[in-house]
Amino acid sequence: MTLLHVDCAGSQTWFLDACGRTTHRERRLLLSNFDLGIPLEVREIQTGLNFSERLPELFEGKAMGEDALRVMDEGLKLRENILHEVRGELPQVRSAAKWAAHLPKGKN
Q1: Is 19 in contact with 26 (CB distance < 8 Å)?
Q2: What is d(CA 45, CA 5) in angstroms, rounded to the nearest whole number?
Q3: Distance CA 82, CA 77 (A)
Q4: In this structure, what DSSP letter does residue 107 have?
Q5: What torsion, rounded to 10 degrees, do the Cα atoms 12, 55, 46, 8 define?
Q6: How does pLDDT run along the chain (108 residues), one tens digit per residue?
Q7: Where are the alpha helices (H) located in the chain, listed in sequence order?
Q8: Could you tell me which of 12, 32, 90, 107 has the fewest CB atoms within 10 Å of its CB?
Q9: CA 26 to chain centre
Q10: Which of 12, 46, 11, 9 is nearest to 29 (CA)?
């Protein structure tokens, strides 16, 4: 039960709270009687599930594009910084290209 994070009620006795319930037996775990909300028709247990209701979505809002405008704004700022640095290096690149034009041509 601890591995499934089923302490969604915040009760000190959360582990025992569902033991006496009798409704929806097809949805309840055997030992704790915890109601999973879906019928248990499978024959295997999948570990690593988290039944906690603390987050209403599978992913946080950031991961689902909630902050798309913020990310676009950050991208535009990064682009402007890169362009600024390129402009700063442009005189050196032009100077190097001008100098390279005087080098002897190599044989291919």
Answers
A1: no
A2: 15
A3: 9
A4: P
A5: 20
A6: 565 666 556 677 766 766 777 787 777 776 677 777 777 776 666 666 666 666 566 666 666 666 677 778 888 999 999 999 999 999 999 999 999 999 888 776
A7: 68-100
A8: 107
A9: 33
A10: 46
The dihedral built from the CA positions of residue 64, 67, 69 and 73, taken in this order, carries a sign that is negative
Specify the length of the chain in residues: 108
Residues paired with residue 28 on neighbouring β-strands, in sequence order: 35
Whether the CA torsion 15, 19, 22, 24 is positive or negative: it is: positive
Q: Which two tokens stand for residue 99?
A: 């100098």
- Neighbouring residues of 33: CB distance < 8 A, sequence distance ≥ 6: 18, 19, 20, 21
Q: Which two tokens stand for residue 65?
A: 């594009």
Chain-centroid distance of CA 49 in Å reads: 16
**Do 35 and 24 contact (CB within 8 A), yes or no?**
yes
